[in-house]
Amino acid sequence: MMEKNKTLIIFTDSGDTIIDEASQVYDAQEPGIVSRAEFIENAGEILQQLHEEGYTIALVADGEEASFQNVYRKNGLRSCFDAWVVSETVGQQKPEAIMFQTAMEQLGLEEKDKKRIVMIGNNLKKDIAGANRFGITSIWLDWSPRYYRTIEEEDWRPDYTVHHPSELPALLEELNRKLEDKAPGR
């Protein structure tokens, strides 16, 4: 098992955050189930890198369990996730707090740990508003034009914005360093 030595905890969406939704191929035998999909340029490698660097990573995504299993297992990246929260299993979708709370519970986190969590997502209305309402840091990955691109409500305003997954490692390292600098005994 990979040693988790980073203070920052990453919650991440999947579609248009790691996986390019335009590349999804649906299973002919199981309607609504994605059988395969392509990663956004470098996103798979970045996910693996963050895992290897010791970040705790939770998938917090809306969709069908089988779709996510198909995509991440086939690409050998299922093991990058320390928690796995999918709306089909939870029975609710983001921005509902239960999605984020379930990830915290799976990771054994408490209320005081919220300051250590970031949520990375592409959807202002679901990922960003959900994170903001839940009280965790929000990072908007705005590379795809498929969803809202205008902040229509105040809770849609992200704490940080990146334009491509390649910008994430530096931002996450900066946020982790700030948390570690604030840690007791430093």
TrEMBL record:
Record has Hydrolase as a keyword: yes
InterPro entries: HAD-like_sf, HAD-SF_hydro_IA, HAD_2, HAD_sf, S-2-haloacid_dehalogenase
This protein's UniProt keywords: Hydrolase
GO molecular function: hydrolase activity
Keyword Hydrolase: yes
Top-level taxon: Bacteria
Stored NCBIfam families: HAD-SF-IA-v1 (TIGR01549)
Protein name from the UniProt record: HAD family hydrolase
